[in-house]
Amino acid sequence: xxxxxxxxxxxxxxxxxxxxxxxxxxxxxxxxxxxxxxxxxxxxxxxxxxxxxxxxxxxxxxxxxxxxxxxxxxxxxxxxxxxxxxxxxxxxxxxxxxxxxxxxxxxxxxxxxxxxxxxxxxxxxxxxxxxxxxxxxxxxxxxx
Amino acid sequence: xxxxxxxxxxxxxxxxxxxxxxxxxxxxxxxxxxxxxxxxxxxxxxxxxxxxxxxxxxxxxxxxxxxxxxxxxxxxxxxxxxxxxxxxxxxxxxxxxxxxxxxxxxxxxxxxxxxxxxxxxxxxxxxxxxxxxxxxxxxxxxxxxxxxxxxxxxxxxxxxxxxxxxxxxxxxxxxxxxxxxxxxxxxxxxxxxxxxxxxxxxxxxxxxxxxxxxxxxxxxxxxxxxxxxxxxxxxxxxxxxxxxxxxxxxxxxxxxxxxxxxxxxxxxxxxxxxxxxxxxxxxxxxxxxxxxxxxxxxxxxxxxxxxxxxxxxxxxxxxxxxxxxxxxxxxxxxxxxxxxxxxxxxxxxxxxxxxxxxxxxxxxxxxxxxxxxxxxxxxxxxxxxxxxxxxxxxxxxxxxxxxxxxxxxxxxxxxxxxxxxxxxxxxxxxxxxxxxxxxxxxxxxxxxxxxxxxxxxxxxxxxxxxxxxxxxxxxxxxxxxxxxxxxxxxxxxxxxxxxxxxxxxxxxxxxxxxxxxxxxxxxxxxxxxxxxxxxxxxxxxxxxxxxxxxxxxxxxx
Lengths: 144, 557
Known about the structure:
Structural class of chain B: alpha+beta
Number of strands of chain A: 0
Largest sheet of chain A: none
Oligomer: heterodimer
Order of helices and strands of chain A: HHHHHH
Helix content of chain B: 25-40%
Shape of chain A: flat
Largest interface: A-B, 47 and 43 residues
Number of helices of chain A: 6
Number of strands of chain B: 25
């Protein structure tokens, strides 16, 4: 089994790259982006786990929890490993011609802008509420 | 022995050397000279949007081969440096360590110095700004023109003219983008009201060639200015260095770390340097020495050479904040793809009754620094955050707000000798007064209020720590009186016969204007006047030489 230099096996990181890409862009990443995710881990995030491992384990075992834990981490733990991994995924996807267009500006009229911003705000708030609860549970599990 | 030895190849070094070389003097430039390690050839000469669509290798220069372009921590000084520019700060922390709890400095050992990543803002100082120096605006005027001709300056004669002065050599201003156009439109409709409140807006004056000038440019509006210099339109000191290298009387030696000088009784100056690769110590001799190693670098060299460890010298740095803003007038508008990445507009706010102490703000649109860098600042789930950023991007502007800085006993640096072969530590203590902090907060509030009147609504204000503006000055100030560790009106270091300083060290006051252009003009003046004195006195010319003292490989000193 190949190891990237991270404490996690490559297969785990590959699954993460695919999970995070589906979460961000609703599609599968091209193979080169998965490889880049592994390569970036070797350099930027060589040590996994620690206090964030409970949250990450939860995400790996229950991918449905990702949006909620992301929302809560964005507010309560912006420097968490989950947020860093998601940002890493975003950076890699943005700098690939296959997905760059999904990071460029989208022009829209005033009404559509307000509706869409409102929708995203509502979705974020709902995710934050449930995510805060999940984060608290994860924190208790870690201390337990 | 050469006529003049110049230390440093940054904005001041090359502009001090230029008149010396033009006068036919033999000039040796010593420089560490780090260069881009290979990103530049990867970047195609295409627009930002075309590259995004098509280049399979874009990740290499946008993110870096070591992913150094992905900032996973909090915002830090220099985080605006893209991977192709990361060489600018390479080796600096190792060779020139700084100790401070309050000041976050960025230094450079690059070919071209910090100006290799300069925002190209051009801000001549006025009489008030130079009040504490023994030179006047009139003294600098011909040198502003000479430098403007040398580097190419583009601007408009608009409402900022009273603050920036005119420039005969000025090229037509860069085109502004759609975002900036709407801001200017609102300003023109509210101009009288805003001017009455002390707020003025105009085109950014920039060191950019908007037409073919001195074999450079014109700017192609590819929005790649943070990544590449493919059209050479934005001024970088290495363009002047290349020109100097065409002269037979100029010699450039890189991979040299200069750490001291001495003035032997026989005359002239001896400069000691270490070769970066071999570790060999070298001694170079010249009639005169011009130090242009940067405000902190020149201070280190002087303090070390004079044995003034533990002596305090002043330090200045423009306090700097930035505020992302949303320009509501951009809703529904299509942003033109043809644009540049530099500051679109400049605003100057002069509170009523204040003689000095303007606040200067630069307005940038945001696109070519990549969306993910904004995402990390937004406390939303990343899925929604990405979609929100895509909608807001055409509306987004960034305000960079600069304040003045003045000397105070609570702002100083000190050189501490380290044990053994460890490099000396520069300790920086920088503590603005409560009054300064309160004034900055009040001024920022007013600036943001004025921008709201222009339709630009701030999302948040981020105050970066001291040192973040990367405008440093004042360590070896130019003053009358000849006090130790000051320089006279010629830039000569007090107590020396032939040691001159030509960089930001000289300035005892920092207005809220970028220092670089004025620093270049001052360096040109120092070089010009030194050239006149040297050619008038007809120095003895002898074969340039280096005495290498092989002491084996050493660590940094």
